[in-house]
Amino acid sequence: MATFLYRLGRTAFRRRWSVVLLWAAVLVAVGAGAVKAPAATDDGSFMPGIEAQKAFDLMDQRFPGSSADGASARIVFVAPDGQKVTGADHRAAIEKLVDETAGGTQVDSALSPFQAKAVSEDATTAYATVTYKVKADELTDTSKKTLENAVDRARDGGLTVEVGGTALATQPAAGGAAEGMGVAVAAVVLLVTFGSLAAAGLPLLTALIGVGISIASVLALGSTFGLSMTTGTLASMLGLAVGIDYALFVVSRYREERAKGHTPQEAAGLAAGTAGSAVVFAGLTVVIALAGLSVVGVPMLTKMGLAAAGAVVVAVLIALTLVPAFLGLWPNAVLSRATRRSRSGKHAETGEQAETGKQNGGTRWARFVLRRPVPVLLAGVAGLGVLALPATDLQMGMPGDEAKPTSTTERRAYDALADGFGAGFNGPLTIVVDAKGADDPKAAVDTVTKEIGATDGVVSVSAARFNPAGDTAVFSAVPATGPSEQTTKDLVHTIRAERPATESATGATFEVTGSTAMNIDVAQALQDALVPYLAVVVGLAFVLLLLVFRSVLVPVKAALGFLLSVLAALGSVVAVFQWGWGAELLGVEQTGPIMSLMPIFLVGIVFGLAMDYEVFLVARMREAYVHGDRPAQAVVTGFRHSARVVAAAALIMIAVFSGFIGSSESMIKTIGFGLAVAVLLDAFVVRMALVPAVLALLGERAWWLPRRLDKALPRVDVEGEALQSRLGAGTLHGGADAKEADDREPARA
Predict the structure, then answer these.
(1) How far is the C-alpha of 230 from the C-alpha of 146, rounded, in Å?
(2) H-run or E-run covering 623
(3) Nearest alpha-carbon partner for 410 in 228, 592, 172, 119
(4) Which residues lie closer than 8 Å to 718 by C-beta, 6 or more apart?
(5) Could you tell me which residues come within 8 angstroms of residue 479 by beta carbon, excluding any fewer than 6 positions away?
(6) d(CA 61, CA 339)
(7) What is the model's pTM?
(8) Is residue 485 within 8 Å of 7, Cβ to Cβ?
(9) For 203-212, what is each residue's pLDDT tens digit?
């Protein structure tokens, strides 16, 4: 592979304009496809197999013409202080709003609070429910505008009017200005690392091109595969981060090879064959981890994982082809200013070559750890263990309107309903009764309604609504507590546990669904899948690293370090978003259960990123060891060559992920924070501290591999050993190829 990538890098350097134009054509093509593609449609199935989803599917079958997951708007009215919504003027304004919205072509029904008895006991609060025939993303601008105008007119009469539900829900957005700040920080880190504007700008440019291609592809294929901008958020987040990092590694190795005296084309080929090999392997680990999300069984999670995996593939391809092509356009501009000033004829080594042989921060830190491996190891493990403790109290759920900022109308509607009717009104349970097997369907439904209404924790039940065939009914049960509280979860389990007796007595069956029950079922299913998925990922990490490093103990150390960093990051997420420690600093206005998808995301993504740093750092140590360095000296050599670049890559990742903390969407904010903390801990504690400490304690045993296993395992060349042995000295330092490179070298930048 190293030889192939070496040739690919040289070819991309030599045919730079063709490569640049090819990628430009790809960007234009997918961009045009994104503009012309129809909007994506949702299949409506969040997690097939769970009870809440089965009930939704039954509703779709038995109630033709109405969508069980159609858009809805819960319009909440609050009278001014000292007044009541039942007053003549306020009542007239509310009735007028309901009449105006009911006339919409996409409206299925619009119920006045006075019809539905949806007025609080003190008559200060009321709500009207508008249901639509289509899903929220299928609502036309006309339908939304009709609702918004009616709400504005009702407000003019003095009422406080807020809208909950999905009809006018704000769409998830990435970090916005905060994300831009993340990119700006990444640019500063690159500039400090390389000391060259061109070297700093090249990884940013290629990463942005890759993200543009990935997001445009998501939009272009959205209608075919059901992808949305929410699906593309993870792709943009990861695509930007790994795109910068992979280009950073290739450019850094190019500068190193130039410092050794290689011609620009030869240096580009060697960078692609060595650092490029590590990029391929690192990208492969990320892709496998993301694609593995499909085994969890959540269609949305599968789509997000595959879309992000595609973005990583694009980032790898760009790092192997477009980056060498740009190096061909500016072969000297990416070198540091000191190196460019020291250039004399064809000799470019006096600047950076001197730096490669002297001590730097990486060597000093490595020697510090090697002198004190036990204290460093104990301090690192203890610190990560303390951070991981909150993870033992992990509560999973799906935050709703209560987690949104108070600046949104959905959050204000949620709070008004909780104040006027009780917290349970924001998360009613939907009971779907299948009375097909009952002798008297109506009597059976009445019995089910009474039994559920008498359950402790249920405040009220609505009248049952039958389908046209009269064999299926739907009604709501309002809990006494909010949708994200443990008491509500216990209530759902109680209703389901008492179900067999009721079904036996009536001959009818029923299922519990609704957004609250759906969130409970999804959280439980994902919690059950977390440990098996974690085991698969850790096992995969062991196998991949066994192939790369041909060692048993190095993969064990890497897998255990990965577990520590993931658990510590998850504990930090629990401490902030569930316990509320420092929540105000991050703009978290409401704490509660951690989003159900978050732990799975964290495990999958951090696995790939952790293996990135493991490969880029430890591969240089193994390279030095194979070439004769003692184990301790190999650690120092690896840090001298890689520590600065790995640290820069980690800081860039942290900056990019931190940018998403500025999102108003709870899911994106939580993922951004979790990934930023995970990268911080994994790169600077696990890889930079625990790894050298463990290797120092293991000594020669770190690189031990049983002979039979050594013969059985295929050889994976990450650092280009085969390339070094295959290519002669003439090719590496001169000869025909070098002359060809000099002949084709463009004007010096």
Answers:
(1) 26
(2) helix 598-626
(3) 172
(4) 277, 278, 281, 548, 615, 619
(5) 424, 427, 428, 429, 457, 458, 459, 487, 488, 491, 516
(6) 72
(7) 0.78
(8) no
(9) 989 999 999 9
